[in-house]
Amino acid sequence: MKHRKRIERLVRHFPENGLKMLLENPGNVKDVLHLLAFRLIDRIDFTRMKAEPTRFVHRDYRHLESDVVLRAPLADVPGQAPRRQVIIYILIEHQSEPDPLMAFRVLEYVVLIYRRQVQEWQRQHGSLKGFRFCPVLPVVLYTGTRTWEGLGRLADLVELGEELADVTPELRPLFLNIGQVS
User: Fold this and answer.
1) Which pLDDT value is given to residue 70?
2) DSSP code string of 36-69
3) Of 88, 29, 64, nearest in space to 143 by CA
4) N or C: which end of the chain has fewer CB within 10 A?
């Protein structure tokens, strides 16, 4: 019954949810990361990738956005402490034109995912002793028809941004303008 209701929601809102459903498939995510030439792709175990509930993300932006949060194991590197997993956060941007606040929105979403990790660790362990963040790989997929060369930087949105760039958060999400891909 739960699965049927999910399918009905997806079908009723297919333009918003169809791509989201496709990106819950590990093979499709791997293909997207290949298109983006992500350098650590060979370390991700896509066969054990799982979709996470999107409870990480606040819904106070436009209704046409969609997101996918996936968790996958990482292969260990000999001689380094094991990095057990990676969280791949994919924001699907369905707007018809670029969003000038995208750098801020992605930063906010990634911080929410990190905050959730802290909360889960504290709930399970009672303290932050031994805590390490699981890496978050943010990806923005733009499905609009207008040209959008890149997301820009948060410093570009801040008064005196260039002068204060060293104290302004910076995150460089992977960005794919689907309309520009053959």
Assistant:
1) 95
2) TT-TTGGGB-GGG-EEEPGGGS---S-TTEEEEE
3) 64
4) C
Of 79, 142, 80, 143, residue with least CA distance to 106: 142
Specify the length of the chain in residues.
182
Angle of CA points 113, 116, 121, to nearest 5°: 130
Long-range contacts made by residues 53-58, C-beta under 8 angstroms, separation at least 24? Answer: 55/116, 56/89, 56/109, 56/112, 56/113, 56/116, 57/109, 57/112, 58/108, 58/112
Other CB atoms within 10 A of residue 145 CB: 10
Measured CA to CA, the distance from residue 168 to residue 171 in angstroms comes to 10
Question: Which class for 37: exposed (0-12), middle (13-18), buried (19 or more C-beta within 10 A)?
Answer: exposed
Global confidence as pTM: 0.83
- Whole-number Å distance between alpha carbons of 110 and 90: 10
Euclidean distance between CA atoms 142 and 100, whole angstroms: 13
Strand-pairing partners, residue 73, are: 85
Tell me the average confidence (pLDDT) per consecutive run of 10 residues in the chain, 182 residues long.
Answer: 69 71 91 94 93 63 63 80 84 83 92 94 95 94 84 90 90 88 78
